[in-house]
Amino acid sequence: MMHGGPSGFHNAPVTRALVISSAIITVTYGLRGRSRSIGLSYQDITQNHGLWKTVPSIFAFSSSPELIIGLYLIYYFRVFERQIGSNKYSVFVLFSLVASTFFQIAGLGLLKDSQVLASGPYGLIFAAFVPFYFDIPVTSRFRMLGLNFSNKSAIYFAGFQLVLSAWRRSFIPAICGLLTGFLFRANIFCIRKLKFPKKLTSLFSWLFLSSPSSSPSSANIRRNAYISSIDHRVQRNYRSVGNFMPEPPESSITTLVSMGFETNAARQALIQARNDINVATNILLEAQSR
Question: What is the pLDDT of residue 207?
Fold first, then answer.
């Protein structure tokens, strides 16, 4: 089973804002019976006032299955916000939503298809699958019903289900999202070097009731106590099992760090867990909850 790091929206205010906004807008349009009408269509881009639908179409899903799966994926991908920081992740979010919407409008103009596209943050979700594929390593594999699976298979399956939930209407948004993700990874216009102002990302915490950031001194005290608690547990384990302690592989440390844990704490937890990443994750979560 894959973990997205500590539970909740700890160190992920932008993700929290996205989840809450998408849920509220989807429910609002659903109660008005307009969920199916907010997706973009070719008629929208040929009318003078048709593009007003762009804003709600970016955030509101058109059905409950899409909402559940979509919010689950956005919530899971908070691992990237924890990895690169809220300032840079905000740039990724804005670029994904704007660029994928532009590609959708361009695609409708070229195809002149009369169908209404699926609405919702498809661009962001499928753009996030690009770093998920390249940057999140496979840590375990298993077979089921004669097929090979990895610890990442559940996330891919959720993305596949999201596409199928809207059938043909979701193909173009999903493809546009993947294209946007590749462009961001290619660092077009040096986009990956940009950062949102810290005050702007802090606004998400205030607007969406995220926990206020701790002062550096209190954060350091908690972090040191957190790492120290793991160090003590490792030392006890060291005395009980003897002098041989396997050195954790860098790939496992990188995986835990990408989940939002401290590098030193991740290394110590892996040593205690005898390089079992799932056990190490549980150790880190248990230590952090204290």
Answer: 59
Nearest to 45 by CA among 111, 95, 123, 98: 111
Cα–Cα distance, 170 to 132 (Å, whole number): 20
Length of the chain: 290
Q: CA 219 to CA 212: how far, in whole Å?
A: 12
Burial of 158 (0-12, 13-18, 19+ CB in 10 A): middle
pLDDT of residue 236: 55
> Given this model, what pLDDT does residue 232 score?
57
Residues 136-156 pLDDT 10s: 878 788 898 888 999 899 999
285 or 96: whose pLDDT is higher? 96
Q: Model-level pTM greater than 0.90?
A: no
End-to-end alpha carbon distance in the chain: 23
> What values do phi and psi take at 3, rounded to 5?
-115, 145
80, two tokens:
């990237």
Write out pLDDT tens, residues 88-136: 999 999 999 999 999 998 988 888 877 789 999 999 999 999 999 998 8
Do residues 36 and 66 lie in contact, with contact meaning Cβ atoms separated by under 8 Å? no
Residue 3 · residue 258 · CB < 8 Å = no
